[in-house]
Amino acid sequence: MAKSNAARAAGPGRLAPRRTAPQLTPAELDRLIHERVRLGIVSALAVNDKLTFNELKGLLRVTDGNLSVHARKLEEALYLACAKSFDGRVPRTEYRLTPLGRSALERYLDHMEALIRATRER
Amino acid sequence: MASPQPLHDRALDNLRYIRDTMERAGSFTAVPGWGMVAVGVTALGATLAALNRPRDADWLTVWLVEAVIAITVGGWALVRKGRAAADPLLSGPGRRFGLAFLPPLVVGALLTAAQHGTGATRVLPGTWLLCYGTAVVTAGAFSARIVPLMGLCFMALGTAALFTPVAWWPGFSAVGFGGLHIVFGTIIARRYGG
Question: What span, in angstroms and rounded, lies between the C-alpha atoms of B155 and B8?
């Protein structure tokens, strides 16, 4: 299976993000994952080792363009790792959640739970 | 103009969305490999017990008893593995797996009753293999890829059993309910944690 240049550079069997992590403040990180489609992508990948572009598209019921844009944003933030290959002649794109992405989801869940707790305690 | 959604409601809505997405995206991983091996062994025993029983009622009784044993053993193993893996059986992928698994089995039970009633027992083993295989294929859509593959093997055997001589029945039963369960059960147990 042929992988992307970045994945190949990371060594066999490993998926590597393409860029270095941008320096984001916690508020910005929150916004990044707060958007519905991106939240869906991260949530779906949290319970799967990897998902293909088409699997994510079917699961989240979004268009190719929409998914592509949001996945790229998550990839740029190093929340996702992407590997491109060919299944016969058909291009295949697979996404995995990186440890950074997983911890961002955990922080986001904590944040939501804290919000709910805070309003209940009022 | 609509009033803005309170923060509390928005947070709850987001958490619900995350949970729903995870449930839809998740797969059912509690298919019990060792339980399937045990079912395979009991099926081999049933094949032996049903040999040399020419009366339909006799060999049918053997296989009905085997069905009860298999459901009990397989069900117990499934619940045990599900609990160990914190994989809920009554919600999310577990629920979808069950809902997809049961209808073909119910069809199989109804066809068994109808075929026995009309004396068309010649097609029973093929019917059982086909219905069970269909159940495994449909439910397997919500589980690891090896599960539907096992179902397809059952369906292939069932198809062959429908069009081969009656004398071959024990072979199909042994290879299908015995052999396939043992082989695929061992692979699932080794690759998917029991």
Answer: 51
Question: Across the interface, do B17 and A39 touch by the CB < 8 Å criterion?
Answer: yes
Whether ipTM > 0.85 holds is no
Instruction: Decide if A49 is inside a domain.
Output: yes
Q: Mean pLDDT for each 10-residue chunk of chain A (122 residues)?
A: 37 40 50 91 91 91 94 94 89 94 92 83 70
A76, containing H or E segment: helix A64-76
Q: pTM of the full predicted structure?
A: 0.66
Range of the domain at A74: 28-121
Beta strands per DSSP E along A17-79: 51-52
Does A22 fall in a domain? no
Shortest Cα–Cα distance, B85 to chain A (Å): 13
Which residues of A fall below an 8 Å CB-CB distance to B? 34, 36, 39-40, 43-48, 51, 59-60, 105, 109, 112-113, 115-116, 119-120
